[in-house]
Amino acid sequence: xxxxxxxxxxxxxxxxxxxxxxxxxxxxxxxxxxxxxxxxxxxxxxxxxxxxxxxxxxxxxxxxxxxxxxxxxxxxxxxxxxxxxxxxxxxxxxxxxxxxxxxxxxxxxxxxxxxxxxxxxxxxxxxxxxxxxxxxxxxxxxxxxxxxxxxxxxxxxxxxxxxxxxxxxxxxxxxxxxxxxxxxxxxxxxxxxxxxxxxxxxxxxxxxxxxxxxxxxxxxxxxxxxxxxxxxxxxxxxxxxx
Length: 242
Ligand SMILES: [Zn+2]
What we know:
Blueprint: E1 2-5, H1 8-14, E2 21-24, E3 30-34, E4 40-45, H2 49-63, H3 66-91, H4 96-104, H5 110-125, H6 134-146, H7 152-176, H8 178-193, E5 201-205, H9 225-236
Parallel strand pairs: 4-5
Antiparallel strand pairs: 1-2, 3-4
The structure holds zinc ion.
């Protein structure tokens, strides 16, 4: 379960596309790695945490870990609610340090976060949000809290249900909160810039994601989990996946 990265120094010197370097996923957005030619890269991943978690869920399906896939998809949705709430507050011109301080009061309780999301969404779009169905919520709870072992198709269906919740809202956010999303992404990148190793080549990277919540262009076309899995399996067969 690894993330494809590029050595930009190899790319610039050889001027040809390079095989991806596969690095371990990590909680931080800062990835520091060395390519086979000895170039050291210090790269900040632009994708939101929710996208990384969704990618991990996709990898888990290809690796046959379906409980882990469901848990990662469920975490991705929770982090999407966080993304919405924080972007909405930035959009309302609330100072980012105030947002961070207030978030600490809800950070440990996902029900509080869901409540905040539902009300902020309703205030913004004048309608109630589409949420996970009760049967999907029960399925998630059974997997995470009761040790249910899902089948591959169950994990795919659950991932698709999460996508179906996130995608239309992400689409609306892209129109309504465009500037706030940019600001949120800038704050994310800035928060990691200070902890870089000085002698490593600095860069930022945007890794493809099914969700793509921050950089949707006009030609963005949503993909299904099944399509995403086909792409991921091709990627993993390409180059030096270990
Ligand atoms: Zn290199």
